[in-house]
């Protein structure tokens, strides 16, 4: 059982669905089946969704492994919150025009720090 990781999987899945619905809505409204119709707005929506899909899974895998290794619940929550807030900030940055680069920057920083701290913790725990 992974109750803490499950919470963050559920919350992050809702963010992914929101990003996906934005892509779908644009495609339907503009009759775009494939590609981006040479639209900057469409490219931004697709990249926001794709970036989420690229970075979130490894974060969740790290989070699950940390929880399975028996880390304190507070540590798992800190990592989960870092991932959630990081991915939310990044998603918000891609949500609006013009893009909010400060949100994008801090979203990536939180995401990457979460992944680095979690990965190092797992390595150290495995060695010791």
TrEMBL record:
Its main location: membrane. The chain crosses the membrane at residues 6-25, 52-70, 76-96, 103-127. The keyword Plastid does not apply. The keyword Cell division does not apply. It is found in: Membrane. GO terms for cellular component: membrane. InterPro entries: MAPEG-like_dom_sf, Membr-assoc_MAPEG. Keywords: Membrane, Transmembrane, Transmembrane helix. Pfam families: MAPEG. This is Glutathione S-transferase.
């Amino acid at each position: 059982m992974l109750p803490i990781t499950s919470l963050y999987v559920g919350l992050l899945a809702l963010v992914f669905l929101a990003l996906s619905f934005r892509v779908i809505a644009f495609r339907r409204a503009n009759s775009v089946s494939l590609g981006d119709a040479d639209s900057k707005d469409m490219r931004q929506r697709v990249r926001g969704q794709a970036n989420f899909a690229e970075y979130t899974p490894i974060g969740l895998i790290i989070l699950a492994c940390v929880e399975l290794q028996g880390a304190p619940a507070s540590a798992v929550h800190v990592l989960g919150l870092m991932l959630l807030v990081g991915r939310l900030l990044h998603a918000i940055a891609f949500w609006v025009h013009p893009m909010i680069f400060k949100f994008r920057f801090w979203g990536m920083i939180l995401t990457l720090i979460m992944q680095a701290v979690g990965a190092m913790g797992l390595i150290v725990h495995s060695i010791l």
